[in-house]
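Check these lines:
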Amino acid sequence: MSAVVISTLSDGVRTVTLNRPERLNAINADLTAALGQALREGHADDDTRVMILTGAGRAFCAGDDLKDFDHQVGTEAHTRAYIESIQDITRAIVFGDKVVVGAAHGWAAGGGFEWLINCDLVVLAESTRCFFPELELGVGVTGAVTTLLPRIVGLQRARALILLGEKIDADQALEMGLAWRVVSEASLKKQADEVARRIAALPPGAVASFKRVMNRACYLDAEAAMALETDAAVRGFLAPGTAEIVARFGKKR
């Protein structure tokens, strides 16, 4: 079986690629475990100066793998551990010392959209489409977006994105402040690599200090938000009827 996350290093730039293309890089327990390990190793590696987070195949990340839902729920402790593994990716992206550049194309949905928002700089291909399906599924958002998203796009837009599951394209994401740059899909890798190399050429101590100060300030209440998000997501995952909603939603995708 091929690795569900691929991590490669070149000239100080570590590219971390979600690698479940047959499932549009949808999130399951194997992917969160492998991605968390890859991010932690990148932060701990002195040769890694900056990381790029991207996806293989036709999408960045289509969100939670609905076909794996039965393995994600069980006892409250089991479900909570699964949700926390998703939140741990946010912690690794946001609070690790290395800058993480998000490079996305195709779908960035649910948890994938959340992880993209967590990145320090985001480059989107013109094909990118983003949305939060969680409330339609009867579950809740994660990734500290309940505190971060309103700061970026404003409270009304944040509510609309989450409550209504509004789909936005790359240009809308750029206009809202959710992306740094929009490029053609053919130039996505090149653009992400170029900006990553510019950051990699900076003094690493200064970059780490800048990121630490800025993200600690911007995410001042992130842990409190994630604790509330986790509680809400666990209740949603375990609520009667959620499995049926997920099954119906999965047939539409």
